[in-house]
Amino acid sequence: MQHRMSTLGRPSGTDGSDFSYRMVVDSRYQKVARTKSILRSFFLVQAITLLIGLFLRIFQSASEDLASHGLEIVATACGLISLIIGELGRRHSRVNVLRFFMATSSIAVSFLIYCTIQKYSRFRTAKSPSYWETVLELPEVVLALVGLVFHIFIIGYTFHLIANMSPPKRAS
Question: What are the b/e assignments for 100-139, b being 16+ CB within 10 Å?
Answer without folding.
Answer: ebbebbbebbebbbebbeebeeeeeeeeeeeeeeeeebee
